[in-house]
């Protein structure tokens, strides 16, 4: 029973490890790999909370661990990625600017953690750090096709949007089958398009993460339909 209760935390730690690996790949110049690992972290992050509720394994430890993982995978890792692919040309100033993203993200997470549970189920205050980090990862993947000014504008905008008071609708209460399937298909198609013909050059972890994510969404889809028919 204790092992089952620990499953959500394992996914959270997997997310954290993806962030660490992403930083390592970015440092070695393998930027596409680094971006893909951030996207894998997003997959794991989207699963740990739902698994915790499904297994009735919600805990304060899990919530704190999730925040720590998010600041690494979607705060520090994307900022390193943007620095190594673009801001490096500005030397010390570029490094200082790149370091602002995790600072804004950490403030965003801290503010979210002290918000009331009721409001957090209906909407987010400011852009979630997970979404912001994922956008930076996608920008890196398509960076060669976009002007550098676009990266600068989006990076700056995301920093301020994370700490803004703008209300972003939350999908936590939206049934997963409807939206999870769309997200899975989108990510799957994206990976195929990006790595078509170069399947041997991205992390083999995707061979494990993607099928697990698809299987999880399929299970939720079947469970959701059965529950609907029962009601």
UniProtKB/TrEMBL annotation:
<dbReference type="GO" id="GO:0016020">
    <property type="term" value="C:membrane"/>
</dbReference>
<dbReference type="InterPro" id="IPR004533">
    <property type="entry name" value="CDP-diaglyc--ser_O-PTrfase"/>
</dbReference>
<keyword id="KW-0444">Lipid biosynthesis</keyword>
<keyword id="KW-1133">Transmembrane helix</keyword>
<feature type="transmembrane region" description="Helical">
    <location>
        <begin position="31"/>
        <end position="47"/>
    </location>
</feature>
<dbReference type="InterPro" id="IPR048254">
    <property type="entry name" value="CDP_ALCOHOL_P_TRANSF_CS"/>
</dbReference>
<keyword id="KW-0472">Membrane</keyword>
<protein>
    <recommendedName>
        <fullName>CDP-diacylglycerol--serine O-phosphatidyltransferase</fullName>
        <ecNumber>2.7.8.8</ecNumber>
    </recommendedName>
</protein>
<keyword id="KW-0594">Phospholipid biosynthesis</keyword>
<keyword id="KW-0812">Transmembrane</keyword>
<dbReference type="GO" id="GO:0012505">
    <property type="term" value="C:endomembrane system"/>
</dbReference>
<dbReference type="InterPro" id="IPR043130">
    <property type="entry name" value="CDP-OH_PTrfase_TM_dom"/>
</dbReference>
<dbReference type="GO" id="GO:0008654">
    <property type="term" value="P:phospholipid biosynthetic process"/>
</dbReference>
<dbReference type="Pfam" id="PF01066">
    <property type="entry name" value="CDP-OH_P_transf"/>
</dbReference>
<feature type="transmembrane region" description="Helical">
    <location>
        <begin position="92"/>
        <end position="109"/>
    </location>
</feature>
<dbReference type="GO" id="GO:0003882">
    <property type="term" value="F:CDP-diacylglycerol-serine O-phosphatidyltransferase activity"/>
</dbReference>
<keyword id="KW-0808">Transferase</keyword>
<feature type="transmembrane region" description="Helical">
    <location>
        <begin position="121"/>
        <end position="143"/>
    </location>
</feature>
<dbReference type="InterPro" id="IPR000462">
    <property type="entry name" value="CDP-OH_P_trans"/>
</dbReference>
<dbReference type="InterPro" id="IPR050324">
    <property type="entry name" value="CDP-alcohol_PTase-I"/>
</dbReference>
<keyword id="KW-1208">Phospholipid metabolism</keyword>
<feature type="transmembrane region" description="Helical">
    <location>
        <begin position="204"/>
        <end position="222"/>
    </location>
</feature>
<feature type="transmembrane region" description="Helical">
    <location>
        <begin position="179"/>
        <end position="198"/>
    </location>
</feature>
<comment type="similarity">
    <text>Belongs to the CDP-alcohol phosphatidyltransferase class-I family.</text>
</comment>
<keyword id="KW-0443">Lipid metabolism</keyword>
<feature type="transmembrane region" description="Helical">
    <location>
        <begin position="149"/>
        <end position="167"/>
    </location>
</feature>
């Amino acid at each position: 029973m204790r092992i089952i209760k620990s499953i959500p935390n394992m996914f959270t730690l997997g997310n954290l490890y993806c962030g660490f690996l992403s930083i390592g790949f970015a440092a070695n110049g393998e930027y596409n790999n680094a971006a893909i690992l951030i996207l894998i972290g997003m997959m794991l992050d989207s699963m740990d909370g739902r698994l915790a509720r499904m297994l009735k394994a919600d805990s304060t430890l899990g919530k704190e661990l999730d925040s720590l993982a998010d600041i690494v995978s979607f705060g520090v890792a994307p900022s390193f990625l943007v620095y190594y692919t673009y801001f490096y040309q500005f030397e010390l100033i570029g490094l200082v600017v790149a370091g602002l993203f995790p600072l804004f993200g950490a403030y965003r997470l801290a503010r979210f953690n002290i918000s009331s549970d009721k409001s957090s189920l209906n909407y987010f205050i400011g852009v979630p750090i997970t979404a912001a980090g994922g956008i930076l990862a996608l920008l890196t993947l398509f960076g060669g096709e976009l002007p550098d000014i676009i990266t600068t504008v989006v990076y700056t905008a995301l920093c301020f949007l994370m700490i803004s008071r703008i209300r972003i609708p939350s999908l936590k209460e939206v049934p997963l089958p409807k939206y999870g399937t769309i997200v899975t298909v989108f990510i799957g198609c994206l990976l195929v398009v990006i790595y078509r013909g170069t399947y041997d050059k991205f992390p083999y972890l995707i061979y494990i993460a993607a099928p697990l994510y698809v299987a999880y969404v399929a299970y939720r889809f079947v469970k959701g339909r059965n529950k609907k028919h029962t009601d």
